[in-house]
TrEMBL record:
Assigned keywords, A-Z: Pyruvate, Repeat, Transferase
Pfam families per UniProt: Rhodanese
Residues annotated as domain Rhodanese: 17-134, 171-275
Annotated protein name in UniProt: Thiosulfate/3-mercaptopyruvate sulfurtransferase
Length: 277
């Protein structure tokens, strides 16, 4: 039976005493670790986007947050105290729209079955009086034994995306906010704009006015119209550095779609390699 990729606070409370529950705080930003230490969900362990979920080198070759090697990520899972039977719940402070969804995608991509993202993230938990804690927490280390030796979810690389820009049978989806897509503003990368022929479907469209995921039925309707009957193999999702795009892949999984291709390098890699933006 497929695990629902989204978990609500009331559901988390119901399983909070499970011995194999592992909760992870994946917030980002310059003070992420310090903010975690001040306040986080009880038993939550901090996960660092830059060191645990990426191996950062030259953004021109892989973007700002390239995936770690498969074997290094498996070692990270053991260090974090995850084994194959763990019930993993992930949250961040941006409604799952940042590294929370990236960690979910990576766990799914190594074949982990029981992993969910907290609907509404930290804010929702606080609003509903979920128990909080401070300081640092950790779980006993494990030896994660994977069934595979490489990522199992579909990805594409910069040459694939270049080919896709020249074939209108493909759909390249940019999930950044509209002003970044249009090139009006670019707060992070060196160049503003978007990949040629990419279409914009901001990740924020996955959420309602309360910062919660829209229902699977609403998401299904919106994306079905947007995809125009294209097969998931013809669809590529990207963002700035392969993090926020995972929020839309999470929404698609929640709505019952096959998870399409992720371009991890995203705009941060593309914009450093091509002038046609």
């Amino acid at each position: 039976m497929k695990t629902n990729p989204i978990i609500n606070i009331d559901e988390l409370l119901q399983i909070s005493n499970h011995s194999n529950l592992r909760i992870f705080d994946v917030r980002t930003g310059p003070n992420a670790k310090e903010d975690y230490q001040k306040k986080h969900l009880k038993n939550a362990v901090f996960v660092d986007l830059n060191t645990d979920l990426a191996e950062i080198n030259d953004p021109k070759n892989g973007g700002r947050h390239p995936l770690p090697t498969f074997s290094n990520f498996i070692k990270t899972l053991g260090k974090l105290g995850i084994d194959k039977d763990s019930e993993v719940v992930i949250y961040d402070d941006k409604n799952g729209a940042n590294a929370g969804a990236r960690f979910w995608w990576m766990l799914k991509a190594v074949g982990h079955k029981n992993v969910r993202v907290l609907n509404g993230g930290l804010q929702s938990a606080e609003n509903q009086n979920y128990p909080l804690n401070s300081g640092n927490e950790n779980y006993p280390k494990t030896d994660y034994i994977a069934d595979f030796n490489d990522w199992q979810l579909p990805q594409v690389w910069i040459d694939d995306v270049k080919s896709a820009t020249e074939n209108l049978d493909n759909l390249i989806v940019d999930v950044r906010e509209s002003q970044r897509y249009q090139g009006i503003t670019e707060p992070i990368d060196l160049v503003a704009g978007h990949i040629p022929n990419a279409e914009n479907f901001p990740f924020s469209e996955n959420l309602d006015e309360n910062g919660l995921f829209k229902s699977p039925e609403i998401l299904k309707e919106k994306y079905t119209e947007f995809f125009k009957n294209k097969d998931s193999k013809q669809i590529i999702f990207h963002c700035g550095s392969g993090v926020t795009a995972c929020h839309s892949l999470l929404a698609l999984d929640y709505a019952g779609f096959e998870i399409p291709n992720l371009y991890v390098g995203s705009w941060s890699e593309w914009s450093r390699n091509f002038d046609d933006v």
